[in-house]
Design a protein that fits this description.
The structure is a single chain. With about 160 residues, this protein is mostly helical. Helices cover about 75% and strands about 0% of the residues. The chain contains 8 helices and no strands.
Length: about 160
């Protein structure tokens, strides 16, 4: 079903039916719950912290035998982008970049596709910052990431 068809069906429904459906969606779909929480109260900080921890575990697992799952972290961020919550997306993209730079720094990891993925994520974040006028909030972090990136042969510019 496309969006147009969904809207048509919603227009046919009574308010109480829509409330019941949204309530069920809230209970059963974690991403919908997260979106509706932000939609209703406007607070993204708790959600940022939650997803930052997930990204850390995927990008830089603490276990000796753990495997790095940076591709899964990128997939998570891609899914979160669909929520269209700019502050959340930017915070997580920058956190991903920071975690990856930590892996490079601590483990001496070097892999061209890995560097390219980090680079793309950085530029996605800076684009989101500019488009949503978040410069004041992220200028220091961006400066730190740019400085750190030069140490590893990455050429972040902002």
């Amino acid at each position: 079903m496309g969006l147009r068809e969904l809207k048509t069906e919603l227009n046919k429904m009574e308010k109480i039916e829509i409330i019941k459906m949204v309530s069920e969606l809230y209970k059963k779909v974690p991403m919908a719950k997260n979106y509706l929480d932000v939609f209703t109260n406007g607070e993204v900080d708790d959600l940022i912290k939650k997803y930052q921890r997930e990204i850390e575990i995927l990008v830089y697992p603490l276990s000796i035998n753990a495997t790095f799952k940076d591709a899964e972290a990128r997939k998570l961020i891609k899914t979160i982008r669909k929520m269209k919550i700019a502050e959340l997306t930017v915070a997580l993209e920058l956190h991903y970049v920071n975690c990856c730079l930590g892996v490079i720094e601590d483990l001496g990891y070097w892999d061209e596709p890995y560097y390219a993925a980090v680079d793309r994520m950085f530029y996605s974040a800076t684009k989101g910052i500019t488009e949503n006028s978040l410069e004041a909030k992220y200028d220091k972090l961006i400066a730190d990431l740019v400085s750190k990136s030069y140490e590893f042969g990455l050429d972040f510019e902002y």
